[in-house]
Write a structure and sequence with these properties.
By secondary structure, the chain is of the alpha/beta class. It has a single domain, classed as 3-Layer(aba) Sandwich (Rossmann fold). It is built from ten helices and seven strands.
Length: 217
């Protein structure tokens, strides 16, 4: 078995994809502006993420579970997403996502790209409708960092052999702990602290940073 050469973990909303999934759900629920405002403040580090998530999810109560198929049609992969994943996997890397969004939308995206790892939140659904609550552990900044460490350990990798990339404040711990931490088209608080940054919305540019640091993939 060929040893894994590296691990790249990235955020989903406004990183792997162009949109914020919960904002799209909010628009359908008729609470778009309110949810988008909470999302923006949470990503800038102005609000506790878990509290902000609970407040937004509560506004989704009553939506039918068929809403996920509707939202999927409105989601677009960020430019370079497929190229980034394909290039890394072809060179013996593993690629995963860890998201403050929801498995109900993220799993489909991960399958489409053939990702190796997925972690996200679960929305509670009863009798075909969203209850306005989540189930299980919330994916906080601490959980994102723990996921990076867990997956690296499973692969026999040091953190120096990992790359973490995201745009929001809850991505900072994993960005700072990884071997190559990248602020991707990120909020000011993330750009100020991340070792590397990509300010053009093209994920394939991460390949240039990895090659620059490591000399190759």
């Amino acid at each position: 078995m060929t040893k894994t050469k590296g691990l790249l973990i990235m955020d989903v909303d406004s990183t792997l994809i162009q949109e914020e999934g919960i904002d799209l759900l909010g628009e359908i629920a008729g609470s778009g502006a309110e949810i988008a405002d909470i999302t923006s403040r949470a990503m800038n580090g102005e609000l506790d993420f878990a509290e902000a998530l609970a407040a937004r999810v509560a506004l989704l109560k009553g939506l039918p579970e068929t809403v996920f198929a509707e939202v999927r049609k409105q989601i677009h992969f960020t430019e370079g997403a497929r190229d980034l994943v394909a290039a890394l996997q072809a060179n013996g890397w593993k690629v995963g996502v860890v998201s403050g969004g929801f498995h109900e939308t993220v799993d489909d995206l991960a399958r489409e790209l053939g990702l190796d790892y997925v972690r996200a939140n679960h929305l509670e659904i009863v009798d075909g409708q969203l209850t306005g609550k989540t189930t299980g552990d919330i994916v906080t900044k601490e959980v994102k960092l723990a996921s990076l460490k867990k997956w690296a350990a499973e692969l026999g990798l040091e953190l120096s052999q990992t790359v973490a990339m995201g745009d929001g404040a809850n991505d900072l711990p994993m960005i700072l702990a990884s071997g190559i931490g990248i602020a991707f088209h990120a909020k000011p608080v993330v750009r100020e602290q991340a070792p590397y940054q990509i300010n053009t919305p093209n994920l394939a540019l991460a390949l240039d940073i990895i090659k620059e640091v490591k000399g190759d993939l």
